[in-house]
Amino acid sequence: MGIYKAGKPFAMLQQETSEPYVSGSTKLLIHSDTVDGSTDFVDSSTSGHIITANGNVKHSTTQTKFGTTSMYFDGTGDYLEIVDSDDFYFGSGDFTIDCWVNKASAARQVFTQGNNNDTDYWRLDLNANNNPTVYVRISSTNEVVITASGNPVPDDTWVHLAVVRNGSTFTLYVNGTSEGTDTYSGAMSNFTSPFQIGSRLTSSTQYEFMSGYIDEFRISKGIARTDAGQDLALTNGSFTPPTEAYSDVTIEDLTLQSVATTAEAAPTSGDIVMLIENAAGTAVLNTDIKAYVSRNGGTTFTEGTLTDEGSWGTNKKILAFHDLDISGQSSGTSMKYKITTHNQTANKETRIHAVSLAWS
């Protein structure tokens, strides 16, 4: 193409990107950060579910975990309701539901969803002994039952609760500590009744109402947030509960792949130069960020070893590799690059600003 590098001709494809790709595993997120007495409840996830308030449930400044308010349930007819959605159908996939609870005496349901009967449902409640308990009941069979019998929830104290499915293992965490597990390899039912917070529905009757406060209620689909790199990642079997409100978006791993451009002849080597930004944390090269070149339209990619070639601003790095051998790929002239990020969380966010691919 009339451009030379180190004495040999090469061609180049350059692409600039904007913000990082973000995709929400978060399917419901209620912050409750508003004004005292408000009865408007907002889903801050990308799903934007409509949340219906029933009874006297409201936001209150009396007790708050994060922000200015939390959700207050008086124990008599108060609950939140979200129309059934595919967001709440987990099948046999991973999921995480977590929140903060500050209960009064005789508190019961934290959340529940079922089929308006007593044979198909799943729920997290505080039993008569104030022990958090998870039930998954399918066709009248309790497939999962986990009770935190050794860790009752005290009154007037903020406690973090999390229900996590990872493969076939269901785990109930209280303040980041596992209080029990159960196994079930089958699929969750595709429940049809509304998802409810603070009450239970059976035969069109609401009962077992929550008494107390709930904050930062989150549903995450397709992800066990206790996995490495996630915001509830385990260390020696437990995690540290969140110390601040969740972000409204979930930062996830990305795959950025270019469109193809045609080389004049089959290249035998490739170069990549890219501009990245460590928006949070620091990406470990060739672990948290990787780069690949293909000469056959993406049928085969060869990974190069990225090195740090300097900075272009605060927390901004120039990464590159040169003379990557791609001669082992099936011959072709359809050039592509692929950039992948890994272990991305709110504490490690890697942004890709520009990528340049060269070949010879």
How far do the termini sit from each other? 10 Å
Strand content: over 45%
- The structure class reads mainly beta
The best one-word shape is: elongated
Query: With helices defined by DSSP (H or I, 4 residues minimum), what is the helix count?
Result: 0
The name of the CATH topology of the largest domain is Jelly Rolls
Mean pLDDT: 89
Largest sheet report:
8 strands, antiparallel
For the CA atoms, what is the radius of gyration? 25 Å
What's the architecture of the largest domain in CATH terms? Sandwich
Number of distinct beta strands: 29
CATH class wording of the largest domain: Mainly Beta
Characterization of this structure:
By secondary structure, the chain is mainly beta. It has 2 domains: 128 residues, Jelly Rolls (Sandwich), CATH 2.60.120; 196 residues, Jelly Rolls (Sandwich). Helix content is 0%, strand content 47%. The protein has no helices and 29 strands. Strands 4, 6, 7, 9, 14, 15, 16 and 20 form an 8-stranded antiparallel beta sheet that branches. Strand 26 and strand 27 form a beta hairpin. The protein is elongated. The N and C termini lie close together (10 Å). The N terminus is likely disordered.
